[in-house]
Description:
Elements: E1 3-10, H1 16-23, E2 31-40, E3 47-54, E4 57-65, H2 79-87, E5 98-105, H3 109-119, H4 123-127, H5 129-133
Helix pairs in contact: 1-3
Amino acid sequence: YGIGSVSYEARRPFHPDKFYKFLHSTEAYGKLIRSKGYFWLASRPEFAGQWNQAGGIAHYGFAGMFWQAEPKINWPTDQEALASIEKNWVEPFGDMRQELVFIGQNLNQTTMIQALDDCLLTEEELLKGQVFWRTLPDPFPLWEEAS
Length: 147
């Protein structure tokens, strides 16, 4: 049946407009059956976004704050939770990352990964910092942030 999966991880934020366009053109990479994960938009650097898609139903929205953006006083104190945070910690951005999985029929893994890589900020954009990142065009709707 040609069912396969593509896992994608990166430690650089997505350009919001480029990633939005990617999510709305996934048919170019094969027949997507299910996809899910967490993503990091440059325009909302402290927040993790969540992506869920099954068949023709898709949703993206607020998943929470990255620990990198949270004052340490608000961090959990139990060792198991701290170990989980540290396991996913990579400097200079801490736990901020892309973590997505795509399951589908006849997926073109190479093309899909290249398309996702093309959604990441360029080195030049990355070096401009978060003040610049927040000015990038962001077509995603406002997220209802849990307090």
